[in-house]
Design brief:
- The chain is mainly alpha-helical and about 325 residues long.
- It contains twelve helices and no strands.
- α5 crosses α6.
- The longest helix has 29 residues.
- The protein is globular, with a radius of gyration of 18 Å.
- The chain starts with about 40 loop residues before the first helix and ends in a 6-residue tail after the last helix.
Length: about 325
Amino acid sequence: MSAPTAPRPATEPSAAPAAPPEAPATASATAPARRPALDWRLRFAALSLIWGFSFLLIKVGTDAYAPFQVTLGRLLSGTAVLAVVMVVKRERLPRSARTWGHLAVAAFFLNALPFSLFAYAELSIPSTLAGICNATSPLWGMALSLVALSEDRPTRRRVAGLGLGFLGVLTVLGAWQGFSGLDFSGTAMALLASLSYPVGWIYVRRTLAGSGASTLALTGSQLFLGTVQLAFVTPLFTTVPGGFPVLPTLAVVALGALGTGLAVLLQYGLVNEVGPTTAQMVTYFIPVIATAAGVAVLGERLSWNTPVGALIVLAGAALTQGRRRT
């Protein structure tokens, strides 16, 4: 449920990057104290696989649990992973009530809302389509940044990328055949989830830049607040599960522990080591992996326009991430 690139520090003057199904807020990036033992290329590949398979895990989770329950389990697992890391590193939580208020809004737009929308979307659309919809986040981000971020100015290349990207969306959806066989509600929820990420990124850049807290502390706090939000909402719209089937339960736990908790740590490590430009290239592998996983593991059908449209979307997204005029 996640659409993604490596998130840039909130202090960096650039348009919102593409997100994963789980891109959290960032406020600063600090250089690692020592070089990681595992080569960055291997960590890059691991991050691509984790986020690419997240859509498959959502689909498996919703076989036994309601979408809100999948999201709550995901946030609980992801928060637990970051909480352990924060304790080990002795990270301090933000102290400002204002910061916590902004983090609550960020948690809604970057975690609670998109995670829930993707889970609901996959009740009626294949995981392959959800993964491709996720790849539209940089397109939404570029469009929104032109309106909301005064330092961003459009270039011909970026405008062309925006147009090309949405042409790819129409190709995926089969616009020339009247969107035949398309589930509109599920597709709309997946696209809204992808739109939610850049809305959250822009909010974070306007409110949390220079807050003084570490990236890990902010992200862990944000996931905790997202968990609290789902803990209030889930009982209102769901009933207690009659059982806890092994495979769906493991899928939800893996979705949170790997796709949200571990993925965040891998992502920030890549940003620190190779920079956001290289790290965000993970965005272009996610829909490919999500499509391959859906077809190979879940047996989802794939028509020619889906991969072709996905390639067009990624080409447009790449163009929108070109150099900005400020």
